[in-house]
Amino acid sequence: MAEKWGSDKAKPESVGPPRRGLSPAQRKRKARKDQKRRTTRGLSLAALIVVLLGAVFLGSKLWHSMSGGANDYAGDGVADVVIQVHDGDSTTAIAKTLQNHKVVATVKAFVEAADKNEAISAIQPGFYKVRTEIPAANAVERLADPESRVGKLTIPEGRQLDDTADVKTNAVTDGIFTLISHASCVELDGKQQCVPVDQLRAAAQSAPPAALAVPAWAAGPVGAMPNDHRRLEGLIAPGTWNVDPAASAQDILSTLIAGSAAVYTQSGLLDTAAAMQLSPYQILTVGSLVQREAKPQDFDKVARVIYNRLAEHRKLEFDSTVNYPLDRQEVATTDDDRALTTPWNTYMSQGLPQTPICSPGTDALAAAEHPAAGDWLYFVTIDMQGTTLFTRDYEQHLANIELAQHNGVLDSAR
């Protein structure tokens, strides 16, 4: 009989130990282990979430600190403060200065406010009085307002350190110390503060030349006049300067002298002096005499008279050098004044005065560096329009003086 295929098919055999059901105790232990693993995984996940959230928070805070967030102050501010805008400062640099002084809350807020206000372009380097904790838009407006600027100092050409009085009119011309004192004044939270003239004069008189930033080419002459504030005469150049209202008298003077020395160097004073076989200090002194003795159209001629008289060992005999230590302005000095022996009186001493007698302007200094060609030894202004006659002949000079007297130019008020 034929066999049926598959009738005797082999049965599968079990592999491994026989399967048994877990006992109740085993099931409890397994449940506890599973629960522990789930709890551990949950805690780990929670800790990871906390770390990630912390990193996001700290990163966001750092980003806002560096690039500025959306925060801004509101209100009228807390207290007055003075900040400085440096030459070349970008809007972002100004914003960082403001943020560091707690004027604005963030850099971003100020930059955005500045972008919306064209007045930002009007902000000049200098010192500004603002308020702490004010809206960024308000900060932009304050910096653009000329009334907010403090410490702006303008020194006209020909000023000397001390005030001077006109003999005829008694009008007082503010000296450089007075101008500095005025520029240093600022009112903070209703209280006015200024650097007094007396402190400026004391610093000029007693501070070491190095502490006042006196340039090397002037250190010798300055050191030769100890305990005299006029030793700094001429070392502060005319022009517009920025004075820090919070600085000391000595620091203000050193900043101005250092800045002036840089101006003189850039103008070529040192190179010209070397070419003329003179010291820069001597040329500065000649420039101060030119400034006080002549009208601009005659600057180079007066400079030539000075050099001619020095070359021939003649006294300069300039009334401006008589007036200088007397702190007054007078065309016709008296015999008694001219007889006074001072470090500046060129009627009594030969050569240049011991210091400049004012701060010469650019044109007067240029004339001292590039005098006109001529053999003149004398000059005198003969009318109220400033006409000045130059000559080498003494007799002609006396005739010119007589003409000046006739026109009332040399009349003394005393």
UniProtKB/TrEMBL annotation:
The keyword Cell membrane applies. The chain crosses the membrane at residues 42-63. It comes from the Bacteria. Residues 1-38 are annotated as: Disordered. It is found in: Cell membrane. Keywords: Cell membrane, Cell wall biogenesis/degradation, Lyase, Membrane, Transmembrane, Transmembrane helix. Functions as a peptidoglycan terminase that cleaves nascent peptidoglycan strands endolytically to terminate their elongation. Belongs to the transglycosylase MltG family. This is Endolytic murein transglycosylase. It comes from [Mycobacterium] fortunisiensis. The gene is mltG.
